[in-house]
Amino acid sequence: MAAEPYTDVTTHVRDELRRVWLRLEYQIRLGWRKETGLVGDEQIGPEDMGRLFATARGAQPTGADSGTEQVLEQWLAAHEQTEARIRATIDARTRSPLVDVIRTYNLSARQWAALVFALMPEVDPNLVQGYRYLARDSSVRGLDGRLLAQLVYDTPQTRSLMARDLSATSPLLRYRLLDVTSANPNDSLMFRRIRAATRLVYLLDGNQFDLDPELAEVAELRGGSVSGAFPAVIVDRATSAMRSNEVVLAVQGQRGLGKRTLLQLAAAHWGQRLLVIDSKRLSQLHMTLQPTTVRSLVRELMLLDALPAFVDIDDAAVVDQDRDALPAFFDMFLDEWTGPVAITINRERMPRIHQRPLVHLNIEVPPLQVRAAMWQQVVPALSQLDAECLAGRFAIPGGIIVAAAQAAEAGRMPDAPPPTATDLDHAVAAQLHQRISRLGKKLPTPFDLEDLIVDDDTRAALVEIAAAARERRKIRDQFKLRGAQGISVLFSGHPGVGKTMSGTVLAKRLGLDIYEIDLSQVVSKWLGETEKNLSDVFDAAEPGHVVLLFNEADSLFGKRTSDVKSSNDRYANLETNYLLQRLERFNGLTILTTNLTGAIDQAFKRRFTYDVYFTFPSPDMRAELWRRTLPATTGTIDYEALAEKFELTGGFIKVACERAAYVAGANGVPIDEDLLRATVERMYRERGKLSTVGPLE
User: Fold this and answer.
1) Within 552-612, where are the H helices?
2) Burial letters for 599-625: b for 16+ Cβ neighbours within 10 Å, e otherwise?
3) How many other CB atoms sit within 10 Å of the CB of residue 679?
4) Minimal CA–CA distance to 368: which of 342, 337, 389?
5) What is residue 565's three-state secondary structure?
């Protein structure tokens, strides 16, 4: 009668447990029999030695104690039945968790037996007592080399197989099905503990389709239907590459474009799931843990019939390695894995990939009409007009659209109506703020153009910049202008002339947020980190048309040197070149300010759309600045005389008024001209000026 395949894990576990117990009982009974008459040398006779010799030759011994042969017969019957059902399950291609382990890793019968003897104490802890009795060692806590040699590799001919099956190249250890450990690394294999991977214990409940929980920190299993808006040629190329064992598929594009969704679509086409591996978290593991984690990932890929995707692999750069090289764990992985593999890259710099031929796909932000359709798909209550307005305002990918919609919905009461376009507008801004806030600070925009005290040329330039930023897309389409649609502006002039304030005024007139980039967070001593941070800034700002403000930009973007004397000079030049290229491709408004216009590289100045110089305020401008800055409760003050006497910029005038107000408030007196003069004269002295003649710097 043909054996039936295993259709449930419970039956298989029961059969394996039965033959383990029978094999253990037989070995113990055999030990009892061998110990008969061996209490002292004087009790050993010729017949006893004959039986021992016969046993050593493999002949049938005589004089066995009652029960040993019966247990042996029962074990042989159970063994043959279980092996027959395993073969039937494999032949019928029936899915069964434990049989899948044998089939997936191509285990031999003895390798499987070794795994079972290590695994079954997790099912029946009483087996540990039997192992202790057989080993005659009360410290035994599970299977070790001595027990395995008696229970599985019990002949001199199979003893060599034991060393091979427990070597690093064996599937048992290569895929981390077994862990062989010892407190003393010099211990013989016989005294090393052999443990089944905890992963296999999770199979005993019949749920073989879940990822090992121990890998939840570095990987995620994705499957099932998924939708995404991608060009057909991109989907076709990704699908084809995810079937090839000869290439590395690299999908590049800014965060939120759906790179993982594309890979999941490609894997689903072949009836497989996607194992998303977090490259950054994997790189943060200690170097001694990375090889074992990589082998565990390979084990899961084979067991779950999944395809690997190392996401955000450019986030896993190690500071003391070549910045263009892939992390070391990727080479470890390809040493163990021969199937298809994909990586995703967020930034523009493409790492050097030499392990396999490269298939490179670049994902772009969806066009306007596709974004509008995504908005209506994610928020069905949204009108066509509102969807088009949101799509036009934010050049964002589908990932951010979904996140913004979820955030807008989560912030409302259960019985509230669907989120409006305004709610979604705020939600998108919050998503973008979360991405850029690590490297920048959002500035308030309380002032308008009428609040600025600047000369006519500067005011006209600001009006022109605002108009250009507002109408640039329409005008470029009208005149068929090519290239990026962004505008870069350089504001230069003395400290306190209103450069930063003018940036906030432009943002207010355009209805945009403005972020001042914290250069202390952007600049890094590690090679490549400055470029990486700049890329993050531009990628986060571009989708929402955020205005970027780099104050004192000369400290980061100064003159390049042709006399390269060290690696620092070379990488400083590379960072400057990168910013030049990124400014040209940025589709928003970028403002750089400097107090030292001569320190800015001339190549920068040629590439700025606008170069605005803020002149030192004239006496009339200074008088107006005094009027607007002083509190309304002050007494009679000759503003023109103050303006003629002291050459101050608006920033210093503001400081002088604040300091005078503190003194007046503390002494209970009004702010008068004498107090203001005394305050300004003190400010000159604090800065080492012997007189109040000339500008205060």
Assistant:
1) 567-585, 602-607
2) ebbeebeeebbebbebeebeeebbbbb
3) 20
4) 389
5) coil
Residue 487 to residue 503: CA distance in whole angstroms: 13
Which amino acid type is present at position 453? I
pLDDT the model gives residue 595:
87
Pairwise CA distance, residues 550 & 517, whole Å: 6
CA distances from 138 to 27, 83, 142, 151 (A): 18, 32, 11, 18
Q: Cα–Cα distance between 562 and 300 in angstroms, integer? A: 52
d(CA 396, CA 403): 11
Instruction: Give pLDDT, residue 317.
Output: 60
The helix or strand, by DSSP H or E, that contains position 487, with its residue range, turns out to be strand 487-493
Q: Where are the domains of the chain?
A: 9-203, 213-362, 370-422, 449-614, 619-686
Query: What are the distances in angstroms from CA 304 to CA 170, 186, 196, 300?
Result: 20, 36, 18, 6
- Which helix (H) or strand (E) element contains residue 86? helix 68-91
The amino acid present at 214, given as its one-letter code, is E
Rounded Cα gap, residues 357 and 212, in angstroms: 31
Q: CATH number of 213-362: 3.40.50.300, 3.40.50.800, 1.10.10.10, 2.60.120.1440?
A: 3.40.50.300
Which pLDDT does position 79 carry in this prediction? 93
Sequence-separated (6 or more) residues with CB below 8 Å from residue 523: 530, 533, 556
Q: Which two tokens stand for residue 228?
A: 């995404």
Burial 132-141 (b: 16+ CB within 10 A, else e): bebeeeeebe
661 touches 675 (CB < 8 A): no
What is the structure's pLDDT at 562?
A: 47
Distance in angstroms (rounded) separating the CA atoms of residues 424 and 401 = 9
Q: Which residues of the chain have pLDDT under 50?
A: 36-46, 48-50, 52-53, 56-57, 62-66, 318-320, 561-567, 570
- CA-nearest of 529, 533, 531 to 580 is 531
Give the CATH superfamily of 449-614.
Answer: P-loop containing nucleotide triphosphate hydrolases (3.40.50.300)
Predicted pLDDT of residue 640: 92
Q: For residue 213, what are its two tokens?
A: 């929980």
Q: What CA–CA distance (Å, rounded) separates 85 from 532?
A: 57
Q: Which long-range contacts (CB under 8 A, 24 or more apart) does 554-561 make?
A: 554/594, 554/595, 554/596, 554/599, 554/600, 555/519, 556/519, 556/522, 556/523, 556/530, 557/592, 557/600, 557/601, 557/604, 558/599, 558/600, 558/601, 559/599, 559/600, 559/601, 559/602, 560/601, 560/603
pLDDT, position 525: 64
- The tens digit of pLDDT for each residue in 494-535 reads 999 999 999 999 999 988 889 998 777 777 766 567 777 887
CA distances from 109 to 119, 242, 358 (A): 15, 33, 40
CA distance 557 to 672: 44
Please tell me the CATH code under which domain 619-686 is placed: 1.10.8
Task: Based on DSSP, count helices (H) and strands (E) in the chain, helices before strands.
Answer: 29, 14
Q: Which of 330, 334, 333, 332 is nearest to 345 (CA)?
A: 330
Between the two ends of the chain, the Cα-to-Cα distance in Å is 101
Q: Is 144 helix (H, G, I), strand (E, B) or coil?
A: strand
Q: Fold identical between 213-362 and 449-614?
A: yes
Q: Which two tokens stand for residue 524?
A: 């890094």
- Predicted confidence at residue 105, as pLDDT, reads 94
Strand partners, 515: 442, 548
How far apart CA 375 and CA 418 sit, in angstroms, is 13
Residue closest to 99 by CA, chosen among 213, 174, 162, 11? 11
